[in-house]
Amino acid sequence: MKKFRESKDMLLEGGILRPEEVIEVGQAAHHVLQSVHAPEYISTIYRGQLDAKAQLRLGLPISPQLYQRSATEVEATRQTCFAALAEGVAVCLAGGTHHAFSNHGEGYSVFNDIAVAIRDLQMRQPGIRVMVVDTDAHRGNGTAAILGDDPRVFTYSIHVGQFTDDDKVDSSMDVETVRYVEGGMYLKQLFSSLAAALDIFSPDLVIWVAGADNHQNDRFGQMYLTVQDLARRDEVLLRAFLGNQVPVAVLYGGGFNRQTEFTAKIHRNTVKMAKQLAHEYRGL
């Protein structure tokens, strides 16, 4: 998963971010993780005791670094939400592990950083209304399972409809695309359905799982969007929220392009758009 380091390097070397704008964080505390995840599951990851079947389901080999990396990603998302509420928009240079359930991980997702961040916000601001906008190519099933019964949270997911989910859970609004959907059709579905979602739910904060796996050259996404389509997605979504003074916390989500450096470029482009519009709307 070199994309995390590569995208950060691209952002700094290209002058999109200044070094002082990148804030490094430590690991989320155990009690923070336990707001969502079963203590037994956390201990299993911490001690590196996942069996072979669980590792296959997760898609990642167990190692001493797995807990550290995953707990740090949760903390980064948590801090990104605080920063977004304070400044209007903030980006986690990782995050979006939306396949993690309370008692197991799958699909490269160990801990559900989205759900943990929301539970932490609710401890501090019980009435806060959060919308999760998930434009990763895959269904945000873990997020929906954890947050589905909470009226203070609206989960929106647009994804390829023909994927089979072992743990299919309905989001507040699921939008299914055809396999290998092209940009024009995808964007029409996205914008019309998201407008409908905002007619139903008025958020105080949006957590946006952007996703780079919508690109036509991704190995697993099964969508057919171009770089230009993704730029249009990013701009319209961010303008819709920032233009209405709704803070946005941006998370990377998935991305597995056949050209490995291209995944990092797509993530970089999303951050660049967020930075540009932050200047435009808030003077950040």
Question: Can you describe what's shown?
Answer:
The mean pLDDT is 95. The protein starts with a helix and ends with a helix. Strands 1-8-6-2-3-4 form a six-stranded parallel sheet, with helices on both faces. Strands 5-7 form a two-stranded parallel sheet. The chain has helices at residues 3-13, 30-33, 39-47, 52-58, 64-87, 113-124, 141-147, 183-200, 227-242, 260-282, and strands at residues 89-91, 130-134, 153-160, 173-177, 181-182, 205-209, 223-224, 248-251. Helix 8 (183-200) runs parallel beside helix 9 and helix 9 packs parallel to helix 10 (260-282). The protein has a single domain, classed as Histone deacetylase domain (Arginase, Chain A), CATH 3.40.800.20. By secondary structure, it is an alpha/beta fold. Helix 7 (141-147) links the parallel strand 2 (130-134) and strand 3 (153-160). It contains ten helices and eight strands. Helix content is 46%, strand content 12%.
pLDDT averaged residue by residue: 95
* Percent helix: 40-55%
Rg for CA atoms: 17 Å
CATH-derived topology: Arginase, Chain A
Structural class of the helix and strand makeup? alpha/beta
Instruction: Give the strand tally.
Output: 8
Which helices and strands, and how do they pair?
Layout: H1 3-13, H2 30-33, H3 39-47, H4 52-58, H5 64-87, E1 89-91, H6 113-124, E2 130-134, H7 141-147, E3 153-160, E4 173-177, E5 181-182, H8 183-200, E6 205-209, E7 223-224, H9 227-242, E8 248-251, H10 260-282
Parallel strand pairs: 1-8, 2-3, 2-6, 3-4, 5-7, 6-8
Helix pairs in contact: 1-10, 3-5, 5-6, 8-9, 9-10
